[in-house]
């Protein structure tokens, strides 16, 4: 009688692999490597993060390491170096980010420190897969060469790459998931940072074949697509960037108002980071048409001065802006969900249906 083929693994003993927070790595090692990533990628955020209490500081480093690595994979960079875009592999790179992030959130090792880091902080802070997917969708837009047509498109993008990160950082600070007012203000902080980044990097983005100024703005200014960096259009560009910075200031004011709900050290760190970015925004405005001749830099001692100012500002409660910013977290999330794929029709029979 022929023998039955023997299964490699008996089905009765197959088990799902055990969860390993942080991919099984020691938390201390993850934190140390994440801190190195932040110091290399953003000296300003590394300095401001020192103002947090120890737990929040380490979670911020872990979150940053994941964001930085995702950005680098999407763009073919190493901590913000020269862009090495290859559209033929863009979809594969984004799918790799999704797979590694999903594994990390499931408590599985990824062999990538930054992804093990997001698994660690997600477990500690209660971060969800929806939160990480919102951020990854922003990297996907960059990888496919997307550009905003309208102001609404611009703000949706800013939500993906920065507003959603602000919400995740707030959760890492210990803000409850149902404290929507504070989470909204954390989103405002992220939007502020990203709008200033876009204003600062107009020339750098153009060199990489990117433009985050809405097409509708360019049309209003009579600037042909792809020609906004020409000297002939510099005055119009200055006007559009001033518009960006005005929007940024509105979100900054809302974020500082919300920071009043945070514990002192967290409030101090948020105000300090906002003011350091504020120095960049002021420099862009002051230099006008020459704003992109070289990248704005805020020196170390100037940053220390801003941190000292933030310390005293943290003892006061910032006033509520009137009006609040035009674009809200709720509105942006609604637009994003509406733009997503249509949910499949349910196939479960209704209770009174006969089988």
SSE blueprint and pairings:
Blueprint (H helix, E strand, L loop, with lengths): L26 H15 L1 H7 L4 H22 L11 H19 L7 H13 L3 H15 L7 H22 L7 H21 L1 H6 L7 H6 L13 H26 L4 H24 L12 H14 L15 H11 L16
Organism: Croceibacterium soli
Keywords: Transferase
Pfam families: SQS_PSY (PF00494)
Task: Tell me what the structure shows.
There is one protein chain. With 355 residues, this protein is mainly alpha-helical. It folds into 2 domains: 21-127, no CATH class; 147-335, Farnesyl Diphosphate Synthase, CATH 1.10.600. The chain is 62% helix and 0% strand. The protein has 14 helices and no strands. The chain is globular and about 80 Å long. Residues 1-26 are annotated as: Disordered.
> What's the helix count?
14
Write down the domain tally: 2
What can be said about the biggest beta sheet? none
**For this structure, what is the CATH class of the largest domain?**
Mainly Alpha
| Estimated radius of gyration | 23 Å
Task: Briefly summarize what is shown.
The protein is an all-alpha fold and 355 residues long.
Task: Supply database-style keywords.
single chain; 2 domains
